[in-house]
Every structure is written in structure tokens, then in C-alpha cells.
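hey can u check if this looks right to u? its 302 residues, i copy pasted from the old doc so theres a chance i mangled smth
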Amino acid sequence: MNMPANRPPTRLSTIIVDADVEEMLLGHVAAAHAAAKLAPQIKDAVSAAVLRLRRGGRIILVGAGTSGRIAVQDGVELAPTYGWPMDRLAFLLAGGLKALVESSEAAEDDAALAVQEISDRAITTDDVVIGVAASGRTPYTCAAIEHARSKGGLTIGIANQVCTPLLELAEIALCAETGAEFISGSTRMKAGTAQKIVLNTLSTGIMIGLGRTHNGLMTHMSVSNDKLRRRAVDIISSIAGTSPENSEGALEEAENDLPVAILIAAGHDREEAKRLLGEADYSVAKALSLSSRPSEVRSNGA
């Protein structure tokens, strides 16, 4: 006798699924705790990266498979959220960017390809190269980090297992040990969660250190649609203490360049705003501080 295809699950199967879901969710909580233990190391990584990037360096993210996709996902947000220049951001993903949507597992074993691709980027001592691999053993990622470090770049390794090649090759090792996965080998789960948290914290800390926020506000975000324009007006009003109408006018005068608009709303003309930002490494907080000091003192670099 044929059973209906849409027969509701039995009570036993429901109990099993409920238990599985709870265990998976608890695994993600454990992953968050594993990432939180890295706070001191992440602070060190942020400080070291900020020093390099202030000299004009690039952020270069390296990975394969799930880890590579998570790294790209974090990196692509830096331009719209913090105004990070796209020419100072690069992705090395095993199998190329098409591997974002198509599996390219064999490419992760190609160490020679990684060396070639990292060599093509002409790494300098100002660059920050971040490699991500759950196992810490991916040949592509390890080779890229090893070569980047040999060229003097700051290398940061993110992995989920201790005592692995990636962590030994990188100058700064960030190991969020997450243990066995609920589905064995599926590192998109606990390991992926921990990687995302570490990358989010690291990149956000770097952007804060570079002065691309002010009092928890995104001072350098891209103003590319109506929602973001409304947010930009709120940010300008909050920082400069101006009305929404004046903030809207400042944003228009700045041609949607939010840092410039904030300085205009604070009482500067467009050229003065740009000059102050240039003196302040494009930090709104520093520029506002400079603007309150005598111009002759500013010109002397005091």
C-alpha cells in the first residue's frame, strides 16, 4: 500500500530533528566562544596591520573552498562600509573568483599556482596578507602565506586546528579551535562560523584603527542608494550637530563624499574639508580635531 508523499513526520522523527537542530546551534555557540578566546591575538593583529596600512599597504585575502568564500565575503564589505579603496584590496581564491559559486576543490592543492598569483601581486612590506584555512594545511593557502612573508608582508593565518602549517608559516597565528563538526568534514558549520567572527572582528578593528569610524558611526560608507543617503544624513547630523536639511545640503555639496560632507557641515568649505582630511589620513575624528586648532600650528605639523 502506497503512503501519501506529504505524510506528516512521525513524532519520533520530529524529536530526532529537534535534537539535531539544537546540537548544531550549540555548536555555533561553541564556535563563538572559541573565537572570543582570541581577543588578545586579534588586538595584536589589528595593531600590526594598521601600522602597515597607514603606509599605503593593501589587504590581501587568501583561501580555498569554504574558507576562501568566507574571506571574500568579509573583504567585499570593506569598500561600501568603510570606503576602503578597491585598488588596496585583493582576493586570492583557489580556482579564481568563479570558485565563489562553483566547486573547485582540486585547485586548493596547487601550491605553485598560489606562489605565482601572490608573486603577481608584488608584495611589499606595507601589505597585510590574511590566509584562512579550517584545517590549516591547505597547500594553496600555505604556499601563498609563506611566499608573502618571505617578501616582508605582514602575514596573518586563521585556522581551526592547532599545530598546523598555516599557523606556523604566518607571522601572527589566530587559531579558533572548534573540534569535530556535527556533519564530519563540513567546515561550513562550526569552523566557518568561527572564521567569520574572527575575520569580522579583525577587519572592523583595522578600519576603526585607521579612523574610518567615529563614535560607532560609519564615516566613510558609500552613499549609493536612498536608504544609505538617509543614513548618511543622520550620520552628518549626529557628528556635526546640524539639522537634516543642512546635512542634506552638505552631502550634496560634497557630491556624496561622506567624510567631506561631515567637515562641510561642521563649518568648512569643500577645499578646506579635503585639506583637513588629507592632513588627518582621512580620519574624520582627527580632521575635526585639527580644525579646532590654529592654522599656523596645523601647518607646522604639531
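The longest helix spans residues 11-36.
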